[in-house]
Design goal:
Two copies of one chain form a homodimer. Chain A is built from 22 helices and 15 strands. Chain A is of the alpha/beta class and 551 residues long.
Amino acid sequence: MEISALQRERYKYQPKLPAILSQSIEDVALSFGKPTKSIADSDALAELFKLSYGKPIASIVKGKNEKINQPLIVGVILSGGQAPGGHNVIAGIYDGLKKGNKSSVLLGFLGGPGGMLEDRAVEITDTIIDEYRNTGGFDIIGSGRTKIETPEQFAAALTTAKKRNLDAVVVIGGDDSNTNAALLAEYFTAQNLKTRVIGCPKTIDGDLKNEYIEASFGFDTAAKTYSELIGNIERDAASARKYWHFIKLMGRSASHITLECGLQTRPNVCLISEEVEAKNISMVQIVEQICSSIVKRAANKDNFGVVLIPEGLIEFVPEMKKLIEELNDIMADHGDELTEKTGFADQISWLNSRLSGESNTLFTALPPEIARQLLADRDPHGNVQVSRIDTEKLLIGMVEEKLKELKKTGMYNGKFSALAHFFGYEGRSAFPSNFDADYCYSLGFTAFVLIASGLTGYISSVRNLTAPADKWTPGGIPLTMMMNMERRHGSAKPVIKKALVELEGKPFKALAENREKWAENTCYRFPGAIQYYGPSDVCDQPTKTLILEHS
Amino acid sequence: MEISALQRERYKYQPKLPAILSQSIEDVALSFGKPTKSIADSDALAELFKLSYGKPIASIVKGKNEKINQPLIVGVILSGGQAPGGHNVIAGIYDGLKKGNKSSVLLGFLGGPGGMLEDRAVEITDTIIDEYRNTGGFDIIGSGRTKIETPEQFAAALTTAKKRNLDAVVVIGGDDSNTNAALLAEYFTAQNLKTRVIGCPKTIDGDLKNEYIEASFGFDTAAKTYSELIGNIERDAASARKYWHFIKLMGRSASHITLECGLQTRPNVCLISEEVEAKNISMVQIVEQICSSIVKRAANKDNFGVVLIPEGLIEFVPEMKKLIEELNDIMADHGDELTEKTGFADQISWLNSRLSGESNTLFTALPPEIARQLLADRDPHGNVQVSRIDTEKLLIGMVEEKLKELKKTGMYNGKFSALAHFFGYEGRSAFPSNFDADYCYSLGFTAFVLIASGLTGYISSVRNLTAPADKWTPGGIPLTMMMNMERRHGSAKPVIKKALVELEGKPFKALAENREKWAENTCYRFPGAIQYYGPSDVCDQPTKTLILEHS
């Protein structure tokens, strides 16, 4: 494989660590706080996690730690979608282990949690890890979406842990994967197995976040990559002066990515799913908001603009949610009848009598391509595949219709030509920014310290992230502390609570305060490509979200 | 407007100049070669360009130049689509002018050539130019696609030139705009007007290129921006191991961008329009080529990959070209009849009897969405809008069908899930790479020297581009030298010949030599984001195309 110049140079980058982790490893110890509680449902969770509930927060401090030099066998798993920095987490664990004891072993389970269940693993060596330092992707060992949930799966994990004589396993994943890690920790303890389980907070979506986990890794790099592209498109729009760009951004549940990109690039419209849901905003109102910007800008002869749309938007729009639910129900019961209708017109009239009045009105008002997507793209259970719906094109179609109306009334006299984009895969495997490279390496190194100190059921935590890296504070947070009970598939399950965009939070308020100005005027900001070298203000800044949350 | 950290830092960047242009301006002179000839049709061109045909190549050399300190009034025009570095061309002209004489004036015509026709202009000042140094976009004065072609337009340009007392006008544009510049130079000379006309080679497509113009500006930055994204997607594909990404890249006539991105990122399939045309490759053969890679990789359990597709591909596929021509003819004559058919099925059967057998077979074999695009997206003359056709989705649809066949025969047993991307607007207005920042500034400064030396009908030329910038050789090339006669709208016109990808050229050969290996194996290369700082191999390298062409 030919290596790019950047990759070759990035191999040489030494990620920064919190000062406490840079000193002699024998002086790295833990101190513990008071017992903790879950964020809610403490009784139910204490019952489910009999052996691991309520542990204290662990802080890494200077002190004697005799256990730190013991030889260890540790497994590591990459779980779920790619996020920049995953390789550095593994490098951090590896370097920590080897610093503790040269004979320690790190096993990488291949292809995600499934690799542990089927005992497919590779021993990480210097040669392997050196090829992946400071690079993007999860290709060092691959990832997967298998969950360790069923009794059979727990048993299979146990078999592997015993066979491999594992002292610990590190699960690098999002909220679901870390919930799984908590369950696995409890299970292993109950089985009197020595194997500890430690989690690491990964997800570009940024929704694994709380008072103790200031950021999930990968969010920084992904948001910066999308912001580069949005800024470039804004500059192009302001130069060509003839296109409205509708840009959908990855992130189905939470809109953190869209919000961060909005703060970075100052587009004319930046939709936030959490606001749509909280304020019960309809499709018609969303379209009116966009059109209001278009009309004002057209009056200034600015027939161009940029609209940011979170991927999951329509799932948060009340009437779309209802329509989708009705379609799912109809198709579950009568899907075959619909499939038999050959023409689209026939399908529409067949649905006519089955949808509620409101949903029927909405459905027939949708642009035909979108209505077709709703009917055509169904999963094996007949459900509409919401992620497949081109929300950006749906909005363009509805905006075009609305502008026609406004033109007739004389309220709008501009030109509207729109282009659609979707950015997601472009940012998930980018070379990690210096921030993510340092943060991930520190998370990995911290995970090693937690393991060497004998902890289980913790997530690796590195805090004070807006300060320079040497001032970061590493430690461990009990996974149960971040959990509550939620209904999933009809029954109450322990889950780590997803962090959605808070409408009272400073990042959203920074958007809300400015958006009227941005809607009418051209206030674009052009972040440019991620820089790994150069002045510190260019190559070491964290996200605006993080800075605002800490301000 | 809030400025990003990168933008603030880029303001400080001092673009590099050829050594000869860094010295005292009084020592910058010109030397001339022998009279030149056009690349073809010399008699016709000598007749059309009576006053400007056959001028000698001008080289910038050390020597006395008394004229260089005269005060000048110069206009500048940005013509056509954005390309990174346009602002630096203007900065180069401006700094040169002011270095020659502080009272010289640079006028920016607003919104492209139309700004000159309507005399809309702004005087460039330190305050203005300093806001745009080393930034992307054309927003300093805007661009436009108006051409100066008709007698009325020439007269309007003359009126403005006289009214503004212009010593010269610089046209920053692609092949068509520089052809216009040549005609304008001839016309002004014929009218005894002192206004000189100088061109500058701009286009991200890379098709304004020849022995004397080694690269058009913007190509470097745009190709690097797309390569960043393709590399990121490749790394994601190799990590997730479940998607085939079909990536369409901007560039309708020439495939230089796709070829450069292919060399940078080593995808599994990289289609080149020029090869498709030269070898008369059919859609079926293209689909077979892609499927061959998919089948081989599936046998290795690699059910993922990346395919690069030049935007203009289908215009080069013989049978698609024929179908499009037939559809255009039918719609020109019977468009209304078709529009009256409400159902798609009706439209198909109506077309059935009107298309030739071959075109009808092809049309009915197209995925329905694509067939609909062919019928729905027509320009005001009824013509199919080829640029609107989602070639990447067309290929995905046809590949899916072919794989179903192969599965039935037992020749293929993989999984195929595809995602479509189109990159264009993301790269046209990026912050120029150091190469483009330096090259554009040098082109602008060179344009000033040509103007100050009294030349007209020349294009600014900076050569030896694979050497460090101080070794670059600046000069002027007579525009007529790059021209031939081509049929346009039924009559012979003088035009600058577009540089298409040469199948005998080293860049294409480098692709051709490797593609069989890349088709089957995962040889991806991850260039990462454009770097403006850091080690020189990371931030100062020109394109692979340029390096190979010079090797």
